[in-house]
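Residues determine shape. Next comes a sample protein:
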Amino acid sequence: MGPGLYAVGDGTQIYSRTRLSEDGSYTDIDEAGEIVGGGAWRNEGEEICFDPEGDGADEGERCWRNDPPDTSGSFMTRRTDGAEEYRVTPLEE
């Protein structure tokens, strides 16, 4: 996974869009185009890790493992602790 815009959802519904920037920052965007979060991201071997801005209980770094993409470019991603999984789809910008 690298810089670009991605839709994150469950395969039938998009929950948010995430823009990964070249400088290692990311921005979460809702359906209305409003920024609803962000922070820093990095690739760590076979994992991609996100560290949201802030120090709240839900703002610690989380790492994910991505399955290989299907023919559409979409792939499943799973949190390394197994707590969550989503379908990620690259979007044209």
